[in-house]
Amino acid sequence: MPSKGTCKAKDCSREVIAKGYCRKHYRLWKAGEMPKARYKTCTAEKCRKRRFRASLCEEHYAAAHGKKGQTPAAAPAAAAS
Ligand SMILES: [Zn+2]
Ligand SMILES: [Zn+2]
């Protein structure tokens, strides 16, 4: 997108080149070093995967809940009545 402006990183007023960041900050952003990633990331330590559920990526969510490959939403309701 050709829209220009100044970098949205704190205390930076360089010209935007992409995603609202200047060249330097855009590189950092791509490297996952900027606080606002392109999507919310897993809160597990050193994990930058996309969030899946409950602030965790699919892998860590599965690990935390012991349901690998199964989501609560996809789980069939227990046959009752
Ligand atoms: Zn910048
Ligand atoms: Zn994770």
Layout: helices, strands, pairs:
Layout: H1 23-30, H2 58-65
Bound molecules: zinc ion (2 copies).
Question: What can you tell me about this protein's structure?
Answer:
This protein has 2 domains: about 1-35, no CATH class; about 40-70, no CATH class. The protein has about 80 residues and is an all-alpha fold. It has helices at about 25-30, 60-65. It contains 2 helices and no strands. It starts with about 20 loop residues before the first helix and ends in a 16-residue tail after the last helix.
Give a quick summary of the entry:
This protein is an all-alpha fold and 81 residues long.
**Poorly predicted ranges:** none
Query: For the report, how would you describe the main beta sheet?
Result: none
Structural class by sheet pairing and helices: mainly alpha
**Count of all domains:** 2
Instruction: Specify the oligomeric state.
Output: single chain
Helix content: 10-25%
Q: If you compute it from the alpha carbons, what radius of gyration comes out, rounded to the nearest whole angstrom?
A: 19 Å
Q: In one word, what is the shape?
A: elongated
Q: Helix-strand pattern, N to C?
A: HH
User: What fraction of residues sit in β-strands?
Assistant: under 5%
Average pLDDT taken over every residue: 79
Cofactors, ions and other ligands in the entry: zinc ion
Total number of helices: 2
- Could you tell me the number of beta strands? 0
Intertermini distance = 56 Å
